[in-house]
User: Fold this.
Amino acid sequence: MTPNRSDSRGLLRYATDPGSSSFVEFLTAAGSDLLPARRMSLGEQSTGAAIPHATTIVAVTFDGGVIMAGDRRATMGNLIAQRDIEKVFASDDYSLVGIAGTAGIAIEMVRLFQVELEHYEKIEGTPLTLDGKANRLATMIRGNLGAAMQGLAVVPLFAGFDVDAASASEAGRIYSYDVTGGRYPEQYYHSVGSGSVFAKSALKKLWKPGLSEDDSLAIVVEALYDAADDDSATGGPDLTRGIYPVVYAATADGARRIPDTALDTVVRSLLERRAAAPGS
Assistant:
């Protein structure tokens, strides 16, 4: 959307005035129609089934950080809208965010969240704490409440490496949310999305203290596989098309994406085990 002349003057005024360290507050004052929840006319938001939705996200803490993974399927009612959507992102150097819910709004919210964290660090000269980042995301979700009440909910999963933790083994953190912006610290593991019930059942059986990053990678891939086995909105790995889950890890070395070459090995090992015991 191109702002008119008066909008442009307002944007210029807010851009040049010293202001809040929150980019969301700046955007709300200078151009609220650019916020994710305002991008679509509310009168067009009544048919949620006709809009792509994203599921499922899982996260697991391990000895040295946290890992987050998402399947690649987006659905539109009973149709597959996209087979290779990306639902997990690095929100900054030490944190991760995964999206479940209305795909378009969720992706825009993630982009705005990334700018929010970068903006704060530039204005204040220091990054937010991990709790502070989780709180900022909660505020953004609360701002989408009106759209959520009309069927366009966004329920992300947030996780990261807490650089202020007493030790690296305790630094992995996971936060879940509800559509009102309620923020809930989670222990050990968590999952959101339509396949979360099945994924959490798998995580409950597989998680144990002292996991390595490689162990955690195998666990999140298996949890997503189990979710896809029982939830039609969750897509499993597709070796024919070369489609694997999107997986990120956050450790003391920062946030990074796990390459598909590493995922291929894990997926093939899982499929071989399941082929030997298909009822398991």
